[in-house]
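U., I forgot to send this yesterday:
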Amino acid sequence: MSIIKTGTVVGAIFGAGLAIALTSLDQTRPFSPNTNAFIDRAVFAACPLYVLGFSNSISSLGAVIALTIMGNAVLYGLAFCVLATLYSLGTRVIARK
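Result:
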């Protein structure tokens, strides 16, 4: 059970950090146009809730970024939780044999 909690926390931290890094790079645009285009594609691939900023439902950039960070934390936390659960179940099955 401890490995599942650890996987969830690590996934949430990873997801939030990824969202912070990618949205910061997307907003500052410190590189060449080709690199910035790659960063744009990476943001949309790794942070699916960032797309909501281009709809009319959310008008504040701060709300979009906060939603992206929290959404990524939940999304990656859940993904890492599933991976940790599968790993835990796999080790139990192997240990029984």
